[in-house]
Design brief:
By secondary structure, this protein is α/β, with parallel strands linked by helices. The protein has two domains: 2-57 and 121-279, Rossmann fold (3-Layer(aba) Sandwich); 66-111, Alpha-Beta Plaits (2-Layer Sandwich). It is 33% helix and 29% strand. It has eleven helices and eleven strands. A nine-stranded mixed sheet has the order 3-6-7-2-8-1-9-10-11, with helices on both faces. Helix 1 (14-25) crosses helix 11 and helix 5 (146-153) packs parallel to helix 6 (172-178). The protein binds iron/sulfur cluster (2 copies).
């Protein structure tokens, strides 16, 4: 089973939920943790994994042989990412826009395009105690996260419960990470910003046809609009974590909640049971 843990905005406590869910389940089922928040992976702070190997992630970028090129413009017309431009007697490739799809080299009638590898980042593979661990790191300054996310997800072991920490937001990297999961847990906070971004994230999960549920973090700080929204939309609220100084202190020290306050373990196991119930079509409301 693949559970993605996402949030419409950053800083809502997504990694707090994902890491504590993994740690709470490790004695119940086989668990794997995949950090797909590749621009800023930070689950390692809490899980303290041993990294056994590193895999380079790269994509093929076009390289044009201008001696063969007739400057027909077909490659540029075919590129949906505007990553290649054809001038009167020059072809310009913009590597930072290229997604390595290979369409331009496939379409070139003169066979003038070859491909060179461009490194985007790494996937690091290891373990944290009984929990399998994989994290992606996109090279700083690069914007093409999906290939790194795909590489991390390529390590999913179908025999384990895979918990995937998704990058915040609702753009391409979030969609890439959530796509194909069995359940998406959306972590939010009870504020107008939290509600706005939650609604956007819910739309994405509905378009991808993935069941979702909500965790409200810092419950009690704002209003009850998130609860009202979830009730109206038929989305279950599976866990509420209050704003609590002890929880905040543990987080700032990199100590998992279920280790610093073991009484929370049962709440995360109940969260998993709620996910199982919803994802198999049951209702918990
Ligand atoms: S499709 Fe091939 S021949 Fe045409 S402009 Fe592009 S590289 Fe040159
Ligand atoms: S590989 Fe794909 S994205 Fe890159 S320049 Fe060619 S068509 Fe565009």
């Amino acid at each position: 089973m693949i559970i993605t843990v996402a949030s419409g905005k950053g800083g809502t406590g997504k990694t707090l939920v994902a890491t504590n869910l993994a740690l709470s389940l490790k004695n119940q089922v086989g668990v794997q943790f995949l950090d797909c928040d590749v621009e800023e992976p930070n689950a390692h702070i809490f899980l303290k994994p041993v990294i056994e190997r590193q895999e380079t992630v790269s994509i093929p970028i076009p390289q044009v042989d201008e001696a063969r090129c007739t400057f027909c413009g077909k490659c540029s017309e075919a590129c949906t990412f505007n990553a290649i431009a054809v001038l009167k007697n020059r072809v310009l490739v913009f590597p930072e826009l290229c997604h390595g799809c290979g369409v331009c080299s496939y379409i070139c009638p003169e066979d003038a395009i070859s491909e060179v590898e461009r490194e985007l980042g790494v996937a690091e593979v290891g373990y944290s105690g009984e929990v399998g661990f994989v994290q992606g790191r996109l090279t700083i300054g690069l914007a093409v996260a999906p290939p790194v996310i795909r590489r991390v997800k390529g390590h999913i072991d179908p025999k384990r419960v895979a918990i995937v920490d998704v990058c915040p937001g609702t753009s391409c990297p979030m969609v890439e990470a959530v796509r194909g999961s069995d359940f998406c847990l959306l972590v939010t906070e009870p504020t107008p910003f939290g509600l706005n971004d939650l609604a956007l994230a819910v739309e994405v999960t509905r378009k991808l046809d993935i069941p979702c549920g909500v965790v409200i973090n810092r419950a009690g700080v704002g209003d009850n609009k998130v609860e009202e929204y979830c009730l109206k939309e038929g989305i279950p609220i599976l866990l509420q974590i209050p704003l609590d100084i002890q929880i905040a202190q543990l987080y700032s020290k990199g100590i998992p909640l279920v280790e610093g306050m073991p009484e929370w373990r049962d709440a995360f196991i109940a969260l998993f049971q709620g996910i199982m119930q919803v994802s198999t079509g049951g209702s918990i409301r």
